[in-house]
Amino acid sequence: MIASGSLLFYFYHWKLKQYTLKTAGNLLLVLLSLLAVFHILVILGIFPYEQTWGGTVVDDSQVLIYEGFALFMTLVFMLIVGVKLNYLKSKSLKRVANIGLWAMVGFFTMSLIGNLTAKSEMERAIFIPVSLLLLLLTLRLAVGKRR
Length: 147
Prior knowledge:
By secondary structure, this protein is mostly helical. The chain has one domain (20-143). It is 74% helix and 0% strand. Helix 2 (21-43) packs antiparallel against helix 3 and helix 4 packs antiparallel against helix 5 (121-143). The mean pLDDT is 84.
């Protein structure tokens, strides 16, 4: 039986490494943009908040706090990726972006764990694959070097 660490090693070295940093980063920016739109839809009440945050949100005031934080973090993540890909040229932010990518890896790992334990079947079905993809693409950027 293959250990999960070995499986991740295999996936990174044979599958994920095929993506250039630019491709992985651009895909990550697209996914983060869609995630930002999703958070806005939840804040506006277009998407039911009962299907988010593992079913722990119980009223409108919590939605604004949780989703406002999530939207803010998503925008910060987009900024970090933009700096890593040199879309935002700032030498002073390069080191911060590299550290930020590892923070994103941690954040998306916790998000994946949270989605695995979510009460909502729909949340598990949609956001487990999204969280896993966000985690793997962020990992690709975090370990990759720009040439």
